[in-house]
Amino acid sequence: MWLYYFAIFLVVISNVFYHISQKSTPVAAHPILSLTVTYLTAAAFTLILLPFFPLQEGLAASLKKLNWTCLSLGIAIVGLELGFLLAYRAGWNISVAQFFSTVIITLVLIPVGLLFFQEKMTLINGLGILLCLGGFMLINIK
């Protein structure tokens, strides 16, 4: 149960620092160079973390268990980070951009979860979706 809550805590804290960092990236900084330094930092940090998550079968056997998802995730992360960097440079507020994108992502992922991952939806879940849509509309009133 500890991991269940710690994982979400880590996501929330990391997301807050992520958006503060993205919004604070100097406008004069080249976006792709900025992301390159970001990924080099991330690569170094993941290598530092590796001893805390030791490989069970060695490097070669562990690499064989990887599939297309690593490449897909790498491409998605670049799109995600470049997208937010450009959104903030275009004038999006930090308080709105994340919410706006999260609502849309959630609406896209609902059918994905239902169709491809056999997830279930309850009436309460449906009401939650309607509340999100209501918030989505209210936050965009100028």
TrEMBL record:
Domain of life: Bacteria
Keyword annotations from UniProtKB, A to Z: Membrane, Transmembrane, Transmembrane helix
Residue spans crossing the bilayer: 6-21, 33-54, 66-87, 99-117, 123-141
Record bears the keyword Transmembrane helix: yes
Name assigned to this protein: EamA-like transporter family protein
Source organism per UniProt: Hydrogenispora ethanolica
